[in-house]
Amino acid sequence: MFEYLKTTPSENNEFSLFFKWATLNLIGVALLFYFHHNNLLLPVFLADSTGIAAAIAILCVLGICAAGFVAFKIQYRAFTEEDIRFLRILGSTAVMLGLIGTVIGIIIALEAVQVDAVGDATKVGIMVAGLAKGMGIALNTTLVGGIASMYISFNHFLLSHEIRRTIKANDA
Asked: Longest C-alpha distance within the chain, in Å?
């Protein structure tokens, strides 16, 4: 009668972890469509002339796909420590790329400042435009890096929690 309670969660529902993963990532896709629909997504990538924001977005998609693959491996008990470590590394890399973009953006902003142009009203506009461009890159890459890192971390938490549950169930 209690055989059902003694089985591991993945034995109760063979694809429960995959459905949790899919639900988490469908929420993310819905948020992306919302931001795109309200014209909040494209300007972030267009303002980044360095391409770092696009690289972070690609890294995030890679992390989500890797998380889905790991979810399947966990369901079939074919996972290794390196599978989950890979997601942690991707999340850290997204943050680091965001910070590198911040530094590059600040450098671009500071390069736009010309000491001899401060007193000339015609050159101030050009200088302010350069400052705005650099600060835009800095803030946008920080934003994309932070969001990508959080999202990869959510996937990492979901999978590592399931791994701990599976190990605990096997030890019992």
From this structure: 86
